[in-house]
Design a protein that fits this description.
This protein is mainly β and 459 residues long. The chain folds into four domains: 28-121, Carboxypeptidase-like, regulatory domain (Immunoglobulin-like, Sandwich); 137-242, no CATH class; 249-345, no CATH class; 364-458, Immunoglobulin-like, CATH 2.60.40.1930. 5% of the residues lie in helices and 49% in strands. It contains two helices and 29 strands. Strand 12 (194-204) and strand 13 (208-216) form a beta hairpin. The longest helix has 17 residues, at 2-18. The termini are far apart. The relative contact order is 0.08. Residues 1-24, 350-359 and 442-448 have low confidence and may be disordered. Residues 342-362 are annotated as: Disordered.
Length: 459
Amino acid sequence: MRFAVLGILLSLALVLSGCGGLGQDPTARVDVSVYDSDGNPIQGAAVKAYSNYRLGTGANDKWLNIEGTITATDTTDTRGNGDVQIAPLLIYAITASKDGYETNGVEKQIITGNNSISITLRKSTDSQPDIKAFLGEITKMSVDSIAINKSDNRGYVVFAVPQEKSGNSFDTYTYYEDETITGLTYNNQLLGKTLYVKNIIATSPTPNYGVVLEVRDTQGVKTGTVIAYSGSNLGNVLLNTQITGKAIYNEGDTITGLTGAGMYDGEAMKMIFTGTWVATPTSNYQATLELRDSQGNIVAAITAGEGANLANPSYGDKYLKTNFQINVVGISHKTNKGYMEATRTEPTPEVGSDRGSVINKPPTITVTTGKVTYTSGETVSVTATATDPEGSLKLIDLYYTMDSGANWSHIGQCTSSPCNLSFKTTSKGTYIIAANAYGNETGKDHDGGAQKTTNITVG
């Protein structure tokens, strides 16, 4: 009996050892192919797999100065192929390097079994020659193409530069995000200045790409920003840096210093760039914006794209006097968030035709409710108090909305102050209550009104 038990235990041990054991971790294979910029295989490149890593700072140094635990290494063969054996289900940084080339790499989550990646190395000696055009010829330089390198997910722009001895032949130069272009000349305006490749943006899901370029002075200080597209003449693009009032905004930015119109005439307004929206995969992106009054209350939700002026009737003319012209809307390749370029100017102050004085001041108004929290079906009492600094009130209008201003319901109106009205809640959520006041000098159909809002919660 004792020998039978020992035999069974020995057989079980052999079975377990044949299965790799209970404590042994399985490994995954990663096949790494290393090529140069022309697609030729690179032999003798050192391949390293890092776990628990931290990339270096700067787009050009993040792979060269990587820190972490090297878990596996290999050297590429004549076909540019190597492989590393590592534990699966983790995220690794896998790099390739060789003398004469810039170190590059890929971040990838490794799955059980076979994996494959491709890494492109650019020659460090001649991969990024400076653009040096003879005086005035920058006006003939153009953007040849803009794209994303699929092997390392880096955005780049290719410039076409005329050869000095032949006006019909062009050299092309490739610059990646976070790289700097030097040697520019243009009627002595760019001597010593540089162009910094700030970002690549997609203006539609198709995608159509643009490149964001920063003009920097001899001290490296930004003096202007432009966006160029495939086919753009670089000389013409750089002239746009002279346009005053132009600015770049990123998703989440708050745009201040705007001047209100209509019911908010003269009031300090602000706008939040909340994101982007697109109608179809072939349409251009549009910006989604929240316009707010001086108290932070939402006045309007605006969706607008390239070419829109938010002071025009289709957008915010009832609320915004500042000319806010949207030039470009896109998605940043670096952050995958919204990106917008706009030009803003203040209009010439309006002057009364009879007295030559600035148009009349709007009324002032406040709005309150009995409390801030209600139950569904409960009646809400609203009080609006208004005064007109230049005459008497003509009208007070009360409204409410349950969908952040997309649809408004009319509560009622009064011809004197205070205005006491009520309405019954119908569903749970946040209600915005707006009170509009109009003076006798302007009337409801003219600019010069005033509005204030307050919020309640219905549970």
